[in-house]
Design goal:
Blueprint lengths: L7 E5 L6 H7 L2 H9 L4 E5 L17 E5 L6 H6 L2 E4 L3
Parallel strand pairs: 1-2, 1-4, 2-3
Length: 88
């Protein structure tokens, strides 16, 4: 589990296109809620989607990054404090 100072939310859509999920977690409301819950980082694996998330939150306190694909996301999942995934 990740330490308290570096709490990461990892969002993954796999190889699909799920822009609705990526857009939802990129919203100011969700970012604010994550900050309020003590998360410091948001990492989004966006798959084949065309929506590109913003790399900063509104107040720049939540570190946001994204990527399309990776040979393995096992490390991302293992080190995340919370995993949000497309499960269908």
């Amino acid at each position: 589990m990740a330490d308290r100072e570096h709490r990461t939310v990892f969002v993954t859509v796999g190889t699909t296109c799920f822009d609705a999920l990526v857009m939802a977690v990129d919203s100011p409301e969700v970012k604010k809620a994550l900050l309020q819950k003590g998360y410091s980082n948001l990492l989004i694996q966006m798959g084949r989607g065309t929506y590109v998330p913003l790399k900063v939150s509104g107040d720049a306190t939540l570190q946001v990054d994204h990527f399309t694909f990776s040979p393995s996301i096992a490390d991302n999942m293992r080190t995340a404090s919370l995993v949000i995934s497309h499960a269908g």
